[in-house]
Amino acid sequence: MSAIVFLIVSLATSAVAEKYFPDGFKFGAATASYQIEGGWDEDGKGLSMWDNFAHEPGHIADNSTGDIACDSYHKYREDVAILKDLGVDIYRFSIAWPRIMPNGTPNEINQAGIDYYLNLIAELLLHDIEPIVTIYHWDLPQHLEDLGGWLNPQIADYFGDYARVVFEHFGPYVKYWITLNEPLAICSMGYGGDSLAPGKSLVGDGIYQCAYNTIKAHAKAYRIYEKEFKPEQGGKVTSNIHSPTFYSKTDSTEDIEARERAFEFTVGLYAHAIYRGNWPQIVIDRVANRSKLEGYSFSRLPQFTQEEIDYINGTFDYLTLNSYFSTIVEHTEEAPIGTPSISSDQSTLSSFDPSWPTSASSWLVSDPPGIRYLLNYLQDKYNPGEIIITENGWSTVPGILNDEGRLSYLKGYLSNILDAVVEDGINVTGYTLWSLLDNFEWSQGYTQRFGIVDVDFESPNRTRTYKSSAEWYKRLIAARQIVD
């Protein structure tokens, strides 16, 4: 090797090695109440729709439930000790609505549930770990689901009452709030599909009605905090964006437009009204046109009034992003007029690059550069000010402690997040990987594992064991740079 080439290589290697996450960047991990807590019927907790959904035969791959899960309801101190040992700055967890309000309504408040989360928050703060709290992560009180759930026009009012109680009790200790986790999944997979509770499969109109109601519920909670709590508590509130990275299959105008449609019908459907005002125009136009051709006298997409648009627009203080994978989008011909569906409204096809590594989940592939592309895209589109990545992770089959696939995935994604921060100037201030623990993975039960800490679900003690990825993450946090 010539001296010049050696110098260039040395400088390039040195530049990579010396690239550090900024001092203010916060590392953490994430979980969700139903997936880890257990204690499903203890201490006054009411039934959630996931309690019922998991107990009904045929919904969960291994016929398991979240009745015990990781037993974090009893083992939260052990979990916080793990977080402390890893060296994290932040921990994202969710509050179970029926643990606070057994029927989802304010006429009955369960003090034991409030005490559980106060104790968890106190334990975190004792160890200098900042809580990031999700108010709703899918475990709707069954009573409210019986009233129509997220299709009920009054659900925003129910959610507002719940959020007020949460802000009142926990707001003095919490500065980062997320109202709803992945409304995209709530609506498309729970009301527009059957893989999440309540499994309604209303693909033509349920998704849109659900989206309309989740956006109004978020805005209701945001405005309550803004008016009643923010002046004293000084926290930040947002909803959660769940987005893959969308690429166009070719550089043709048709495929580029298809990529934009795919984004707006998935991410934009839940984000545009909050960050820009109203639905994305392409969604308004296409659903109205398809509805007319299908014989409707109205659009299947509910229309926001101007008062609602003004009330919703700007209801964010920062942006939280759940992102796991990338997808390639192409245009497809308009579907014949028939049974209404969001797929026909959208008119796109999606696929994966066959070179992308695959995980234990059929939907999860690895494309590390995609996260940098997406962060730049969201910055340009929404200009959110601050971004925290609240979910990003990799699944394996059970029993793997030497999880090289997860290590490779995390290393690649965090490297590109670092580049987005250092090279592109994107204000990403934190990262909470999914997940701290192996847990109940919704309709897949315990057949897929996302944790960096193994949980022995055959043991009454639910024994926790570090995987290789946990040891690696601990070293990365200490070094504040990508490590081998």
Automatic annotation (TrEMBL):
It catalyses: beta-D-galactosyl-(1<->1')-N-octadecanoylsphing-4-enine + H2O = N-octadecanoylsphing-4-enine + D-galactose; beta-D-glucosyl-(1<->1)-sphing-4-enine + H2O = sphing-4-enine + D-glucose; beta-D-glucosyl-(1<->1)-N-octadecanoylsphing-4-enine + H2O = N-octadecanoylsphing-4-enine + D-glucose; a beta-D-galactosyl-(1<->1')-N-acylsphing-4-enine + H2O = an N-acylsphing-4-enine + D-galactose. It comes from Dendroctonus ponderosae (Mountain pine beetle). Keywords: Glycosidase, Hydrolase, Signal. GO terms for molecular function: beta-glucosidase activity; galactosylceramidase activity. PROSITE patterns: GLYCOSYL_HYDROL_F1_2. One of its GO terms (biological process) is carbohydrate catabolic process. This is Cytosolic beta-glucosidase. The keyword Signal applies. The keyword Signal applies. Its EC number is 3.2.1.21, 3.2.1.46. It comes from the Eukaryota. Residues 1-17 form the signal peptide. InterPro entries: GH, GH_1_N_CS, Glyco_hydro_1. Belongs to the glycosyl hydrolase 1 family. Klotho subfamily. Pfam families: Glyco_hydro_1. Transmembrane segments: none annotated.
